[in-house]
Amino acid sequence: MSSRMRISGREKWKYKKWYRVIAPPTFGEIEIGTIPGDEDWKVIGRTIEVPLYDVTGDISQLHIRFRFQITSIDGDRALTSFRMMELARDYLRSLTRRKTSKVAGIVNLVTKDGYKIRVTGVVFTTYKCKTSQKKLIRKKIFEILEKEASEKTLDEFIKASLGEIQNLIFQEAKKIYPIRKVEIAKIKLLSTPPRTQKEEETETSAEAVVQ
Fold it and tell me: Residues 158-180: what's their mean pLDDT?
């Protein structure tokens, strides 16, 4: 008989450590959940999805969902970064009504601090509009999103997407056709800025000190 001790699935669970998942600084670094893992490196890279309500406590933001990815471990704290924001599908469907139009615009953008993101802006009109009017509204969505991204960091853009940007689009789009509602339906992170040589040297030096 082999002398190697076998550990059952139930026993393995006992050896797992619970990590407190922490929201990014933009969201106040509050705890948004817990996640199990037996090694720190196995936890890094995992994602967690939570409604914005869990972060702010504002029930009106229950339909806004954020996805964060664990990027590093600090003791029992799993630190995260933004990956995606998306509105619940049921919520978006509730905004679609008969004899009205839905105008969506999807565009890839680069923020002021170099993050590449894909953003979906949606305009709901009061009445059904013409194809030519839809094109003008969609063009206005693109113009405003591109301008806002170029002038804001990723964190600033995310915050602005919770109300400020919608209002800007609303004010401009209503000059084209009566508007009922504007939403930023989705923001997806495509890539992060390339690290500078100075950042790489700093990280290398820090690792050498630890060793």
Answer: 97
